[in-house]
Every structure is written in C-alpha cells, then in structure tokens.
TrEMBL record:
GO cellular component, one term: membrane
Annotated membrane topology: Multi-pass membrane protein
Full protein name: PRA1 family protein
Family per similarity comment: Belongs to the PRA1 family.
Organism (species): Hibiscus syriacus (Rose of Sharon)
Cited InterPro entries: Prenylated_rab_accept_PRA1 (IPR004895)
Annotated signal peptide: none
Pfam families: PRA1 (PF03208)
Annotated keywords: Membrane, Transmembrane, Transmembrane helix, Transport
Record's function text: May be involved in both secretory and endocytic intracellular trafficking in the endosomal/prevacuolar compartments.
Transmembrane segments: 12-35, 55-88, 108-130
Superkingdom of the organism of origin: Eukaryota
C-alpha cells in the first residue's frame, strides 16, 4: 500500500494541474455535500437544490473529471505501475530469513529485555512446577 501511495503521489506531483483539479473536486464535495447543513437546501443563483440533486451533480462532475479528462488515465497508469512494482517485489522476495528456527534465540532486538524477562521467569518457575508434580 505504501508503494502504491508513493507512486500515486509522485505521479500527481509530477502533473500539478491534475493535482489541482482533484483538490478542487475534493473541495467541491466537502463544501457542497459533506460540510453543508442537511436542514438547509443548497441555493445557487436563487434556485434551491435538494440533497439528491446536489449528489447527482457532484457524481456527474466526478465522472467527467476522472473519465473524460487525462486525470483518469494518469490515475490508472499510476496505480498499474504501483501494482507492477508490488508484484515484482513479491516475485523477487526471498523469504528464507523471515522466521527463526527453534534453536535460535529470539531475544535479539529492540525490545529484547522483555523476551529475556519472560524466559528467565519461565526458567525460574520450571523447577518449582517440576517439584510439585
């Protein structure tokens, strides 16, 4: 997900007009639909628009911006490049060193003091448990 987000961000930053258009579309959704009080209709040039009409206009505007401009192809190509990078990473990743064997201690790392405390507590409790049995 991080690689996809980085590729998408790089693609949008390399095309600033597309980024501005998407930010304008986001601002329209926020201003006209999400942050508007639901009890008051939207009034533009003296005409009141209902919630359904506002939603329909924003959906049509979004479809126009995404599919009928170059922004849609930019977003789709960036997502496909990101997916290709993720697939290449998955294909060439060698997962040999991901898991520890049972013989290797797992207490080397940043929070190793927790592992040491747990193992020393278990070792200390083992003779007491064995003597009760």
């Amino acid at each position: 997900m991080t690689l996809l987000a980085v590729v998408l961000a790089f693609s949008l930053l390399s095309h600033p007009l597309s980024l501005l258009v998407l930010l304008g579309l986001l601002a329209a959704w926020l201003f006209f639909y999400l942050f508007r009080p639901s009890d008051q209709p939207l009034v533009i040039f003296g005409r009141a628009f209902s919630d359904r009409e506002t939603l329909a206009a924003l959906v049509v505007l979004t479809l126009f911006v995404v599919f009928l401009t170059s922004i849609g192809s930019l977003l789709i190509s960036a997502i496909l490049i990101g997916v290709a990078i993720v697939c290449l990473h998955g294909a060439f990743r060698v997962p040999e060193d991901l898991f520890l064997d049972d013989q290797e201690p797992g207490n080397s790392g940043f929070i190793s003091f927790l592992g040491n405390a747990a193992t020393s507590a278990a070792v200390a409790a083992a003779p007491a448990v064995a003597s009760r049995v």
